[in-house]
TrEMBL record:
Keywords: Cell membrane, Membrane, Transmembrane, Transmembrane helix. One of its GO terms (cellular component) is plasma membrane. This is DUF1049 domain-containing protein. Residues 24-76 form the Lipopolysaccharide assembly protein A domain. It comes from Heyndrickxia sporothermodurans. Coiled coil: none annotated.
Length: 83
C-alpha cells in the first residue's frame, strides 16, 4: 500500500510541475559564466527539476553504497568475533 501512495504522490508532484511549466512559457535570459542565452521558461523549469532529481538520486545512491559497505564490514567483524 505504501508504494501506491508513493506513486500517487509522485504523479501529483509531476502534474503540478507540468502545469506550472506550461503556465510559464515566456522567454527568459539565462546568464552563463561565458555568455547569455534566451530560453523559454518552461525548459528552464523542467531542466532544473530534472537536474535536481538527478543530483538527489546520485547522492542517495552514494549513501546506499556507503551503508552497504559498512554493513559488509560489520558482518565480517561479527563472523570473525564468533570464530
Amino acid at each position: 500500500m505504501k508504494k501506491q501512495w508513493n506513486l500517487l504522490l509522485a504523479l501529483i508532484v509531476v502534474l503540478v510541475i507540468a502545469i506550472f511549466s506550461v503556465i510559464n512559457v515566456e522567454p527568459v535570459t539565462v546568464n552563463y559564466l561565458f555568455g547569455k542565452a534566451d530560453w523559454p521558461l518552461i525548459l528552464v523549469i523542467i531542466g532544473s527539476v530534472l537536474l535536481g532529481a538527478l543530483l538527489a538520486g546520485l547522492i542517495g545512491m552514494m549513501k546506499i553504497y556507503q551503508l552497504q559497505k559498512a554493513l559488509k564490514r560489520a558482518e565480517n567483524n561479527n563472523v570473525d568475533d564468533n570464530s
